[in-house]
């Protein structure tokens, strides 16, 4: 994958993570722009994976990990990006999400009901990106 695409994804997820942590709300145009960009760049090869990611995202919302439209759009967009690694991506998101939610609820902001989840996508993407360098 092109290094500039990776930089775009990391910067975009970084910006959205800061916004999510601070305001607990992501502007719709930012999450939609991310989804559309990933579909334009990878949609021809990975559209079906994006659909699978969307359905899995709905299930993750039902389990209480993610809560909003932005989470679902970003999860689906990243599903399009990771392509055939979708199940590794899902396992990482759920695994890191559990650890993150425990830390967030117990240490970071124990009095808040809602948990900013987009940082999990950023960390998951970085782990998947750099796991190729490690492994």
Description:
The mean pLDDT is about 85. The chain has helices spanning about 5-25, 30-60, 70-80, 85-110, 120-135. Helix 1 runs antiparallel to helix 5 (about 120-135) and helix 2 (about 30-60) crosses helix 3. The chain has one domain. Helices cover about 80% and strands about 0% of the residues. The protein is mainly α. It has five helices and no strands. It is globular, with a radius of gyration of 14 Å.
Strand percentage: under 5%
Number of domains: 1
Tally of strands:
0
Radius of gyration: 14 Å
Query: Helical amount among residues, as a percent range?
Result: over 70%
Tell me the distance between the termini: 17 Å
Shape: globular
Sheet having the most strands = none
Structural class: mainly alpha
Keywords summarizing the entry:
globular, mainly alpha, 5 helices
List the helices and strands and how they pair.
Layout: H1 3-23, H2 28-62, H3 69-82, H4 86-108, H5 118-134
Helix pairs in contact: 1-5, 2-3, 4-5
Task: Provide a short characterization of the protein structure.
The protein is an all-alpha fold.
């Amino acid at each position: 994958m092109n290094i500039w695409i990776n930089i775009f994804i990391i910067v975009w997820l970084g910006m959205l993570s800061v916004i999510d942590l601070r305001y607990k709300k992501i502007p719709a145009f930012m999450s939609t722009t991310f989804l559309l960009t990933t579909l334009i760049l990878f949609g021809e090869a990975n559209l079906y994976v994006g659909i699978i990611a969307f359905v899995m995202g709905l299930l993750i919302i039902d389990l209480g990990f993610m809560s909003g439209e932005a989470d679902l759009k970003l999860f689906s967009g990243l599903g399009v990006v990771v392509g055939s690694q979708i199940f590794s991506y899902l396992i990482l998101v759920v695994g890191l999400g559990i650890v993150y939610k425990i830390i967030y609820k117990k240490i970071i902001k124990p009095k808040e009901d809602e948990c900013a989840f987009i940082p999990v996508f950023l960390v998951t993407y970085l782990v998947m990106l750099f796991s190729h360098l490690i492994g």
